[in-house]
Every structure is written in C-alpha cells, then in structure tokens.
Amino acid sequence: MDVLHFVEFVLLGFGVGAIGTLIGAGGGFILLPVLLMLYPDKSPESLTSISLAVVFINSTSGSLAYSRLKRIDYRSGRAFALSTLPGAIMGAYTTKYIQRDSFDILLGLVLMGLALFLFLKPQYQTRSLITRTYRVLRKLTDSEGTTYSWSFNMATGISISFVVGFLSSLLGIGGGIIHVPVLTTLLHFPVPIATATSHFILAIMSLAGTGAHLAQGNLNTTWPLVLALGTGVVAGAQLGAWISHRTRPEWIVRVLAASLFAVGIRLLWL
Q: What domain range includes position 124?
C-alpha cells in the first residue's frame, strides 16, 4: 500500500470511528459496505475479518473515552458481552459459506430492517421506566453529575446478546447497531448509557470474532489495510465520544436510523 492510499484509509477510519462511537455502533455498519464497494472481488470472510478487526480497535478506543465520561454500565455489559461470545465465534466461521451476492443482499436487508424499526419506534427513553415486570435495577451517575435510573430483565438481555453476537460476526458489522436499539427499547436503558455500554460489549465481542478470523487465516494479507483504518478510528472514536457528550440522545437515534437505511439501499443496488 502506497502512502496516498494509506492516508486515504486513515481518513476513512477517522470518519468511521467518529460516527460509530457517536451512536455506539462501532462503525462496522459503515465500513463494511464501503469495503464491499471498493473490493467487489474479495470474499465475504476476508472483508468481514477486516471490518471486525477495525471495529475492535474502534470500540476499545471508544470504551476508554466513554469510561472517562462514566457512562458504561459494567455489570450489565460484562454479562451481555460474555453471552455474545459463542455466537460471535460461530458467526465468524459461518461467513465463508455465504456467496458474495447473497451476502450483499442479506446485509442490505438487515440494515434497512433495523432502520425501519428505529423510525417506527421513536419513543426511546432518556430516563428509564421502573416497573414490576423488570427484575434488575440500575443507577448510574456520569461525570457531569447526571443520574440515570432504569430496570430490565437480565434473562432477556442475555438471550438476545447471543443472537446479536452471531449476526454481528456473521455480517462483520460489529453488533452495536443491533445492541443499541435492543438496550433502549426492550431493556429500557437510557440512550447515553446504551451507546456507551454497547461500545464496551462490542470491544469484547469483536475481539472474539477477530480471533476466530485469525485462526482461519483471513487476516494474513490484509494487515496494512487494518493498520491504516485502525489508526484513523482511534482518533475518530475520541471525537465521537466528545460529540456525544454534547448531543441530544434523540438525535443519536435519528442519525443511526438514517445511516442504516441509506447504506442498506446502497447495498441492494450494488
């Protein structure tokens, strides 16, 4: 890779890191479609391995930034992250059995479906509902002194996290685009806590998926590309976390939904 292309991919990584961290999605849902368009002849497993490796770098950097903001629910995050690991490993080994054309269509449909879900269910909480139907109570105060309280069913979160791990690793999109809607709608997490905790879960999950791809040799020839993208996402993730600190939660959800729908349409028309 020459210097010009290295710089171009660093800039791409910066944008992916900033947007991915802002919405707690890791950026894989942006990066993978771009890679699919740039490399029409590469196999799905090769491109998903690159995307997951970059998502790991991005989510780790973003988690450090969110940790300073004190917005990560570590207790819930650890439980959900452990639940994603079996699915993440299975997904990484399943990707190679999907043909490229089918993979593009599947990813496009998944992204558009998630976008429609977000558009049709706009009532995301900035504070939680506490009712008798949820068994786990959480309370967290961030670095600005804002206190959040919410409650949820832990069994539901663990079950869904296994599925999220499989789909995110299978498609190379990381899983934050699925986990954030799940955390906010089904588990009633406040949006700022959901985006931060999602990043923490994503760091662990994408590490497992990347490890599975390494074991298959899918990253043997693509490390220069991962290095360039990773360099950009580290800086971009810090910017994304800083912006999220100053952005209204409902705008985070709107940006996520619009981005998902646009990328899904583009994939279906590749």
A: 3-268
